[in-house]
């Protein structure tokens, strides 16, 4: 093997191992947080406060250095209050969130000792629980 290939192998192998270790640690942390939320988590309502979108590229082809396409991904911003303090989050619009509107509520499960750690709650069917507020009556009260 030539000297250049040894140098590339010397740099790439440790970088790949480090990347795999970081990915493994992230997956373990995510599983740990999910377990804690399931066991210790408290639930509250969060209100959808905003909507945004951005273009994401899909299907990267390394040889041609091109993407197969792009699509628009939409997100909802939401906020919830715990102990008088407001917390915020963002969720990708998918599944039943496509029909949700700003002002609707979703259920959030958070850690009581760290309310900033949270996840949206899904129903038995795996969809997010969306709560739509009751429409206000347009009828005027009669003057008496």
Which helices and strands, and how do they pair?
Blueprint: H1 3-40, E1 42-61, E2 66-82, E3 85-92, E4 105-111, E5 114-120, E6 130-131
Give structural notes.
The chain is of the alpha+beta class. Helix content is 26%, strand content 42%. The chain has one helix and six strands; from the N terminus they run αββββββ. Strands 1, 2, 3, 4, 5 and 6 form a six-stranded antiparallel β-sheet that branches. It is elongated and about 80 Å long. The mean pLDDT is 76.
- pLDDT < 50 stretches: none
Biggest β-sheet, characterized? 6 strands, antiparallel
First-to-last CA distance = 97 Å
- What's the overall average pLDDT, rounded? 76
Task: Tell how many strands the DSSP assignment holds.
Answer: 6
Q: What is the helix content?
A: 25-40%
- What is the molecular shape? elongated
Indicate the radius of gyration in whole angstroms. 23 Å
Order of helices and strands: HEEEEEE
What's the total helix number? Answer: 1
Content-based structural category:
alpha+beta
Keywords:
single chain; 144 residues; 42% strand; six-stranded antiparallel β-sheet; 6 strands
What's the quick description here?
Helix content is 26%, strand content 42%. With 144 residues, the chain is of the alpha+beta class.
């Amino acid at each position: 093997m030539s000297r250049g290939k040894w140098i590339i192998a010397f740099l790439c192998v440790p970088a790949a191992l480090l990347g795999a270790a970081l990915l493994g640690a992230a997956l373990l942390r995510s599983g740990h947080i999910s377990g804690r939320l399931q066991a210790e988590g408290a639930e509250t309502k969060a209100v959808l406060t905003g909507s945004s979108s951005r273009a994401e590229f899909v299907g990267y082809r390394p040889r041609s250095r091109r993407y197969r396409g792009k699509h628009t991904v939409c997100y909802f911003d939401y906020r919830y209050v715990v102990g008088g303090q407001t917390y915020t989050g963002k969720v990708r619009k998918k599944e039943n969130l496509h029909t949700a509107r700003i002002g609707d509520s979703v259920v959030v499960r958070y850690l009581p000792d760290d309310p900033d750690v949270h996840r949206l709650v899904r129903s038995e069917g795996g969809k997010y629980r969306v709560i739509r507020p009751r429409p206000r009556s347009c009828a005027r009260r009669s003057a008496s």
